[in-house]
Amino acid sequence: MIYTKTGDKGETSLANGQRVPKTDTRIEAYGTVDELNSWVGALRSAIANSESRKTSDAQLARVQNKLFNLGAALSMAPGEWITGRDIEQLEEWIDAMQSVVPKQRAFILPCGDEVVSRTHICRTVCRRAERRMIEANAPEMTLRYINRLSDYFFVLSRFVCYQNDGMESEWKNE
User: Fold this and answer.
1) Closest CA to 164 of 115, 120, 104, 107
2) Strands (DSSP E) found in the chain
3) Which fold has domain 20-163?
4) pLDDT tens, position by position, 119-138
């Protein structure tokens, strides 16, 4: 049964059984991670017709699974949900993409085609998730992962734009 009625009065349970208000910083943190996961799903749908589909879809599928792990960690479920290897994987992907795209010479505006724009949305929601996680005193490894993940989304936006022969829009101080 999908409904338990245990949250009808504004409380919910963490994975360890502790009841907390639905406005608790920990709930806000993993709710934002869940929102990010939804945006990553929307990005995967948009990227389906992109030149970078093969690589990006596999990476994004892994990211979505890790975001579920991140939610488990934030919900205080016992276990090692995010590891140093997860962070290293993001760094490897970032390095591989950066070796292909032209050197960045200016700040880049968050725009482009649908895929690039959704990638930027993922990046900004990821940054918000990071802020919420800091407020919730999230474990250090999860903070490192979410920080690196926002870098990944930024580089992915540049990579997809480059692979699709798009033009990045540079910021001009006007």
Assistant:
1) 115
2) 11-13, 19-21
3) Hypothetical Protein Ta1238; Chain: A; (1.20.1200)
4) 999 999 999 999 999 999 99
